Amino acid sequence: MPVSRSRLMRQRVRSAWLFLAPMLLVLAAVAGWPLLRTFYYSFTDASLADLDARQWVGFANYFSVLSMPSGRVLYDGLLADPVWWRAVWNTLLFAVVSVSCETVLGMIVALVLNADFRGRGIVRAAILIPWAIPTIVSAKMWQWMLNDQFGIINAVLLNLGLIHAKIAWTASSDTAMIAVLIVDIWKTTPFMALLFLAALQMLPRDVIEVARLDGANPWQIFWQVTLPLIRPAVMVAVIFRALDALRIFDLIYVLTPNNVHTKSMSVFVRENLFEFDKFAYGSAASTLLFLIVALLTISYIRLGRIDLEGGR
Amino acid sequence: MKFHRAFLALAVGAMLTVAPARAVELSIVSGDTGNGIKVLREILDRYQKQSGNKVDIVVIPPSSTDQFGQFRLWLAAGNSDIDVYQTDVIWAPQLASQLVDLTAATRDVVAEHFPSIIQSQTVNGKLVALPIFTDAPALYYRKDLLDKYGAKVPTTWQELADTAKLVMDKERTAGNKDIWGFVFQGNAYEGLTCDALEWVMSNGGGQIIEPDGTVSINNRQAAAALDMVKGWIGTIAPPGVLAYQEEESRGVWQTGNAVFMRNWPYAYALGNSENSPIKGKFDVAPLPAGIGEGARPAATLGGWNLAVSKYSKHQDAAIDLVKFIASPAMQKYRTLRTSNLPTIKALYDDPDIAREQPIVPRWKQIFLNAAPRPSATAKIKYNEASSQFWTAVHNTMSGDGSAADNLADLEARLTRLKGKGW
């Protein structure tokens, strides 16, 4: 018996690999190979004007020390580039604030939609609209709405008496990041709400009924019963969004391109790759971006798991 | 069988004889402002009728900075989908290696154009793009409002600021709540480099990088110019000007909400178009000068050209198309519709143009004296240098560091970028 079972097992493993092979091949071709190429270019001095004329320069794109004839020592490379670190900071700030807001708002929306009321189907469909609009389109739309002179946002706020002068949303360094955050939260809250709603609907009703019979108020039920039960789904949703937020590009590129106060890592990468004659430098930034995202994801998963176990 | 073979031979023969004359499909990429794309389509329709070829326009956003990134990407990938690129005057040195040499094909027509413009598109003796229009900015002003308050057209930036403030305050008291004094291109992009170069040069602050390669931007007069501009933000210029490109500033201007505007000549025809609220109420003047040593009015040279991609599969047809669009007849048509400045010398004496778009003959001297951006000096590093410059200016205008500090910082960055040489 054990022999035949292991043969069956082997057969299963083989067919599993067979079925997986096409996907793995495609992944290697469209994700693995470009990643390796980028990694390789980051150690060269490649220029887009003539990619074949590249030369190996080692870690110079990441870090190098220049001794000037005057005796002054200069640090060069990405790790010593304040513009890059500014972009890293902007991206992290954006990711933390946007994902937090989207999680809280998404949860509220999901809880509301989980209740029974007339026309729930329509409301559910309607709430998904922002998420269904392509980012470029919604960014452009918001750009007009946020326009300082003829934008509707300023007109509404002025007429309500909430502000007394028109705000230059995307221009001012104080509000540029806020404008980007508003649009992103508007756009992605439905996505979070959808994932949470799916988790909420899987919940066994009787658990909540029992809690209610025991005299728990809705607030207690949410914190003590609902949230712990849907926690795995929340963790997954947050990681999805965090990955997305860390590589934010399109929204910022349309709303506030070239603005140092909102420039994200991806925008920095694109600028160096294609606009400046710094293909190799951009590749190095791209590699670092990959490493940062990977590192954050791994630590999030680990910390999340530790937390989960500790909570039990 | 025999019949078949004969038929086949006949068919192949027919195809071979027809092939050279067969119509080809071409693509031209452009991100023009205002009605530029519409007029290009009209010109292409004429070309299609005349040549039998079909031409598609690939429309991309008007920011020159964004366009360059896209073009470079397409060219680096050897993209054969785009045959003709509409290129900015500053790009020739950066894209030259991937564009077709037009010298031989245009030998019969180059003499019609201004030699300085042809020179700007020539890299190492190779003509990489044929000009279709040139650009030199103008100070647009509201004639009616200036007359109303007895103000004269400013010739210095100080006069401009004073007049703008005066008219704006009086108009606002009179109930015109949304009016502003001055709009320009303050967004962080190539357009800000154009505007800021004018402020700095007109104040005697040099041209960022001098033709001999020295970085000259860190000087008192340049800092004074930027401090002056900083003082405009929120007083005579809307705070939102820090996010304006050409079309956003025209949006404020053409709805009648600005007393002055700095913009390219294309806004002239649009401002006088049928539905424009400011039709007939405005005029243009040269940009003002600063004060102090070496101060004089300065205008940044702009302009657009057509280049043929080295990777085009229909290079001959593409060159033919480029010559058609750049021809005197089509440039005249474009100028009449868009008030773009032609690059053909003879058109500045054309009576139709003088009647329909009077700005054009008046602007001949201004564009001939316009200052080029340091793209020929900085060569392949120009984009990065320009980006460093506009970032320093944008930071100063946003109140992020003083002009003097930002320019000192900029000097260090540019010197480092220059390295052993540009």
Can you give me a brief rundown of this structure?
Chain A is mainly α.
Write structural notes for this entry.
The complex is a heterodimer of chains A (312) and B (422). In chain A, 70% of the residues lie in helices and 3% in strands. Chain A has 312 residues and is an all-alpha fold. Chain A has a domain at 82-276: Orthogonal Bundle (MetI-like fold), CATH 1.10.3720. In chain A, strands 1-2 form a two-stranded antiparallel ribbon. Chain A is globular and about 80 Å long. Chain B has two domains: 2-135 and 302-368, D-Maltodextrin-Binding Protein, domain 2 (3-Layer(aba) Sandwich); 138-300 and 375-418, Periplasmic binding protein-like II (D-Maltodextrin-Binding Protein, domain 2), CATH 3.40.190. Mean pLDDT of chain B is 92; it is low at 13-20. In chain B, the strands form three sheets. Chain B has a five-stranded mixed β-sheet with strand order 2-1-3-11-6. Chain B has a four-stranded mixed β-sheet with strand order 8-9-7-10, sandwiched between helices. In chain B, a hairpin with a 2-residue loop joins strand 4 and strand 5. The N and C termini of chain B lie far apart (70 Å). In chain B, helix 2 (36-51) runs antiparallel to helix 13 (328-338), helix 8 crosses helix 9 (220-232) and helix 18 (382-397) runs antiparallel to helix 19. Chains A and B meet through helix 11 of A and helix 3, helix 10 and helix 18 of B.
